[in-house]
Design brief:
α2 (129-137) packs across α5 (183-199). It is elongated and about 60 Å long. Mean pLDDT is 92; it is low at 261-266. Helix content is 21%, strand content 21%. It folds into two domains: 4-116, MutM-like, N-terminal (N-terminal domain of MutM-like DNA repair proteins), CATH 3.20.190; 129-264, Helicase, Ruva Protein, domain 3 (Orthogonal Bundle), CATH 1.10.8. The chain contains five helices and ten strands, in the order αββββββββααααββ. It is α+β, with helices and mostly antiparallel strands and 266 residues long. The longest helix is centred in the C-terminal third of the chain and has 17 residues, at 183-199.
Length: 266
């Protein structure tokens, strides 16, 4: 599930393998115009859920993974983990590495970075929680907080997993209107989303719990299983026009927008 932490890890791997090398070959049926063959790869950046590769003559390649995309790094001649027909970008470097972007719905030249319309990046060390809080408060008051946390122009990087886990850890009702969410709770949701994304930037399975028993996550993907706090069956409901999945405990969360005991927040 590509969220901000996944994109951060992908950018880190691409950066280590590619920055400073020159492109010897680039293939993509999604990119128009001359390709940056012979150009040095200057930078690889994660911007929320966007991954940006910058070349020495100023162009930038933007990919957005949505639900299905991923970047892979291979050595020349190494067997690919996915079939070639799924490749959207294939980029060969003069240092022997090959970067392949599979199944990304968005592959384009980034002409104007302001068009990304991203809020503060919650995956970044330089994240500004106060700005994210203000942007969330500026969203329609009737919007459910579970929908609001996914609005990338308010706070970039959060997806279904981090959203569901932060809402549970803060004991917040995902279906409460923003107007009903206390300031303390909204600030806690911003901070917890940031901390969870930072926690999962380093690789390995995504986690929101420190316990060795009961699984790595509190609620996400656990529909029908008992809540690890109260034993009530975890549920999943779709939210918003896109029908994004939200996992929650109806006992620990619903009917309340206040924070739970800190000792139980993971």
């Amino acid at each position: 599930m590509p969220e901000g932490d996944t994109i951060f890890r992908a950018a880190t791997q691409l950066r280590k393998a590619l920055v400073g090398a020159r492109v010897t070959k680039l293939e993509s049926d999604r990119l128009a115009g001359p390709l940056p063959v012979g150009e040095r790869i200057e930078a690889v950046e994660a911007r929320g859920k966007n991954l940006i590769v910058r070349f020495e003559k100023g162009r930038a390649l933007r990919t957005h993974m949505m639900m299905s995309g991923s970047w892979h790094i291979y050595r020349a001649g190494e067997k690919w983990q996915r079939p070639a027909w799924q490749a959207r970008v294939t980029m060969h470097a003069d240092n022997g590495f090959l970067a392949v972007c599979f199944n990304a719905p968005v592959v384009e030249w980034l002409r104007d970075e302001s068009l990304l319309r991203l809020g503060p990046d919650a995956t970044s060390d330089s994240f500004e929680p106060a700005s994210a809080h203000r942007r969330l408060r500026s969203l329609p008051k009737e919007m459910a907080v579970g929908e609001a946390l996914l609005v990338q122009s308010a706070m970039a990087g959060v997806g279904n997993v981090i959203k569901s886990e932060a809402l549970f850890r803060c004991r917040a009702d995902p279906f409460a209107r923003l107007a009903e969410v206390p300031e303390e709770t909204l600030r806690a949701l911003v901070d917890d989303s940031h901390q969870l994304l930072l926690r999962n930037r380093g690789g390995g399975p995504r986690t929101s719990r420190d316990s060795l028993d009961g699984g790595r996550l509190w609620v996400y993907g656990r529909s029908g299983k008992p809540c690890l706090i109260c034993g009530t069956s975890i549920r999943m409901r779709r939210q918003g026009a896109a029908g994004r999945s939200t996992y929650f405990c109806p006992t620990c969360q619903c009917g309340t927008t206040s924070l739970g005991p800190p000792s139980q927040r993971g």
